[in-house]
Amino acid sequence: MIYSFYHITDVHYYSKRNFKCDWRTFPQPNTQICILRSEEAFKKALEIVTEDKDTSTVIITGDLTDHGESYSHEEVRDILQEFTDNGGNPFVYTDNHDYPYFSVHGFDENGKKFPMEHLPEDVVKEMYYPFARGKAFDTFDDGTTYIAEILPGLYHIAMGYDAKDTKSLLYPYFSDELMDWVKMHVEKAQQKGATVICSTHRPVVAPSPAYEVVGKGHSFIDGDKRIKQLADMGIRLFFSGHSHAQCLKEITSDKGNKIYSVQTSSIAAFPPKMRKITIDTEKGTAYIRTIDIELPDLGMSFSEYAKKGFLGIIEKIPYNMEHDVVAFANTEGGISLPKDLILKHPKIVMFLGRKLNGLTYSKVAKFSKKYHDLTEADYESVKDKKFVNLVLDLIANLYRGNAHYSPETVEYKITMGSFRKIEKLLSVLHIDIKKTLNGYTLAEFIEPLLYNSGPDDDNTTVKLG
Ligand SMILES: [Fe+2]
Ligand SMILES: [Fe+2]
Question: Which is the CATH superfamily of the domain at 2-298?
Answer without folding.
Answer: Metallo-dependent phosphatases (3.60.21.10)
